[in-house]
Amino acid sequence: MRVCVVGGAGYVGLVTGVGLALLGHEVMCVDVNSTRVEELENGNSPIQEEGLEPVLAELLQRGKIRFTTSIETGIEQAEIVFIAVATPSLPDGGTDSSHAVTVARDLARLIHRYTVVAVKSTMPVETLDQLDSVLKERLIPGKQFDLVSNPEFLREGRGLRDFFRPDRIVVGSDSEPAFSVMRQVYQPLIDGSAELPEAFRTDTPIPYLETTPSTAQMIKYASNAFLATRISFINEIAGLCQRLNADVGAVVEGLGLDPRIGKAYLQPGIGFGGPCLEKDLTALVRLAQDNNYDPVLLDSVLQRNHLQLIEVQNKLINGMGPSPVGKTVAVLGLAFKEGTNDVRNSLALRLMKDLADSGATVHGHDPLAIPEAEEQFQDATYFENVYEALAGVDAAVVLNSVAEYRDLDLERVAATMKDGLLVDVRGVLNSGDVLSHGLRYDSIG
Ligand SMILES: NC(=O)c1ccc[n+]([C@@H]2O[C@H](COP(=O)([O-])OP(=O)(O)OC[C@H]3O[C@@H](n4cnc5c(N)ncnc54)[C@H](O)[C@@H]3O)[C@@H](O)[C@H]2O)c1
Fold first, then answer.
1. Closest Cα to atom 1, ligand 1: which residue?
2. Domains of the chain (ranges plus CATH)?
């Protein structure tokens, strides 16, 4: 099929475009970010995703995917248009739908044959209705267009694998012709006929759910709210473990062995940051309030997340002595999670800002995300080498569980740090080893 992905140089858009092209479709990715479009035309991905660049190079060579800043060119031949633009939070917690509305206005002007408009962006059903109204101003529903909700569940860092081996595909629509087009789009994935590289193949059947648009969006919001709840839950349990002398690592193991619970998203840490969980949970809280429903549980999940950042900050500040003024802290792990260069809403950057505001000097290190962090936060010194980041510091905090931190040469760390406080938020270090090198150790739980 001929597919257009609007927002096709972003995380979701690019993975969707590359994934659909690999399934055999002809893909045009449209994006307003001309720098990214140019990079992508040359086969360079602005986002770090495992396995993406080689696949992209091959698809470009075969002419299966193209990038453009022109929506006119992008949708000229398209039978289906995916919208994958950002839907950030508004200051009141609501959803900023302005990018999606701009796209809908363009589509209303440009669509000239029956086209399915599939929304990948996460948005409340009210916003979907808003897009529908914009399209209806110029186009006849059911005849010239159908609007579909097709929420995305990919995890950054393993986005392509998630595209090809999704836990489920959810399609929300009120129109049978639109369902039929969506089935054609995903058919090579569902029936296993797509010729995929070994790493992306799966024999496991992929659940394919067809629902109404509002149910589809609620599946997305409920999924993220549940994941956030697990994170806040285990962070609260970790805080209790520390106060009651219990080992949270062993508690997680014991909890996770219960098949009704499982281990996923039960690692204590600094809390949930990143581009989705907090934004989507805040949007859900806002939706509940707008509909006169009191979201007590969801509110508490957000509150625990806020307190968790303060807990990490206090461990550092109290551990360094009466005042952070004149002290230096190394923050290891700047992306919102390991395996990506995405620092959007990264709690590491919030922590760095809070530390700098309280008078500390801040060093930053990350294996992938230094340029992105530098762009967002300039009041720190960044180091490519982790031992250089640790040189002369009073304390260091490990926020991501990459191998580089797990395998730190503690002898070198002890020799290079000024004072030896290591706050191991992700539990990647062996406390006994750390202490035996004359360093001080603190953790969550
Ligand atoms: N990032 C994730 O892990 C993830 C996972 C699931 C769902 N989502 C949802 O997917 C959506 C996109 O998220 P993202 O992380 O990919 O965002 P992103 O910021 O990485 O990508 C959005 C892209 O849209 C482009 N854009 C904005 N306005 C445009 C316009 N008018 N025309 C063409 N392009 C335009 C931007 O230049 C950008 O490249 C959001 O709703 C998000 O909540 C994201």
1. 11
2. 2-209 (3.40.50.720), 220-295 (1.10.1040.10), 303-443 (3.40.50.720)
Q: How many CB atoms lie within 10 A of CB 242?
A: 18
Q: Taking a C-beta distance cutoff of 8 angstroms, is the pair 66, 29 a contact?
A: yes
Structure tokens at 195: 């010729």
Rounded CA Rg of the chain: 23
Residue whose tokens read 């809403």: 345
CA dihedral 221, 224, 225, 230 (to 10 degrees): 160
Cross-strand bridge partners of residue 89 = 95
Contact status, residue 150 vs residue 117, Cβ threshold 8 Å: no
Q: What is the pLDDT of residues 300-353, one digit of tens each?
A: 999 999 999 999 999 999 999 889 999 999 999 999 999 899 999 999 999 999
* Angle subtended by helix axes 213-244 and 125-136, to nearest 10: 150
| Bridge partners of residue 5, in order along the sequence | 29, 82
pTM of the model: 0.94
Report the percentage of the chain scoring pLDDT > 70: 100
Instruction: Determine contact, residues 376/349, Cβ cutoff 8 Å.
Output: yes
| Assigned token pair, 85 | 């633009």
C-beta 154 within 6 A of ligand 1: yes
Question: Atom 33, ligand 1: which residue's CA is nearest?
Answer: 31
Contacts of 28 (CB under 8 A, 6+ apart): 2, 3, 4, 5, 8, 65, 66, 67, 68, 73, 74, 75, 77, 78
What is the Cα 311 distance to its own chain's centre?
A: 23
CA–CA distance, 300 with 232 (Å, rounded to integer)? 9
DSSP secondary structure letter of residue 175: -
| Local structure of 437: helix, strand or coil | coil
With H, G, I as helix, E, B as strand and everything else as coil, classify residue 323.
coil
Query: What is the CA 366 to chain-centroid distance, rounded?
Result: 17
Contact 399, 326 (CB under 8 A): no
Question: Is residue 20 a contact partner of residue 27, using CB atoms and an 8 Å limit?
Answer: yes
Ligand 1, atom 43: closest residue by C-alpha: 122
372 pocket-lining for ligand 1 (C-beta < 6 Å): no
Q: Which residues are annotated as catalytic? A: 276
Q: Check pocket membership of 401 for ligand 1, CB cut-off 6 A.
A: no
Handedness of CA 250, 255, 256, 259 (dihedral sign): positive
